Amino acid sequence: MRKRLKVLALFDTAGTPPADQDFSRELETPDWKAEADVINALKRLGHEVRTLGVFDEPGLILDEVKAHPPDVVFNLTEHFNNRSAHDQNVASLLEMLEVRYTGSGPTGLTLCKNKGMTKEILAYHRIRFPAFAIFSPGAAVRRPKRLAFPLFIKPLQEEASYGISQDSFVESDEAFEERVRFIHERLNQEALAEEYVEGRERYVSILGNKQLQVFPIREVIFSEIPEGKPRFSTFKAKWDDAYRQRWGIQNIFAQPLPEGAAERIAKICKKVYRVLRIRGYGRIDLRVTPAGDIVILEANPNPNLADDDEFAQSALKTGLTYERLIQRILRLALSA
User: Does pTM surpass 0.85?
Assistant: First the structure.
């Protein structure tokens, strides 16, 4: 019989949370689907669930853990005080409190969130990724000669395609400098410039700590974008349903791969997962070039867990229901 656990579902809010911590309205909206799906699954599994929303006050976590010690925290935070790079500090606080929690620890979150650091580690392990350069606010903005157009410009420390639009794809020095300055001024962080890699974009979901399970590969298709035009996932392409419909953007299971390709992808993605210290569950985004080369784009610890998103859909393809997936993630947290 499954042990009933005391689970604290921890998530971030867009501003100071209400004093009564009542999120019943928010949890019925599309923007809170992942949080609602996880909380509902935990309850269906029979666990005792408390919820806590945080914005910029770590004391809320301290007070909650002290007053109602959980067996495990289901960590759904992605930011702290509107800073995406500060999610690692939430995990660090939970570490100091000696509380078990789901997903990656502060090391994995740090290595993956800083895309420049990610690439340096991948380079050491001879894993292919796009050529890149990083530009800090206040520094001179000049394209290095080693970076040939077309290029792709994005924020260094964001996720979910935040800060990525059609203007992120640049083919001239003027557009390059303009987009880098946009990221400096509007997003107040370093800009990452990298070569645009032509090819099919694949998403590889992985579950585990030491023993890793690779779920069936997903890919994104752009059926209404004219031939010869760049295909990449902007913020709108991921989250705006009307935009996705207009351009025929769909996330589907990968079409049949050449013999041995899926195995090569799985092997490389497991290595990426391990060297970047991802724990619990993660997703690796990559492109397969027309020549069959595998190029790692990003590593995502703690990816979206909505029941209709990439990770849960890939797990379901193997027969792992949503409730069983959530239970497996809990077990991995308790055994980490």
Answer: yes
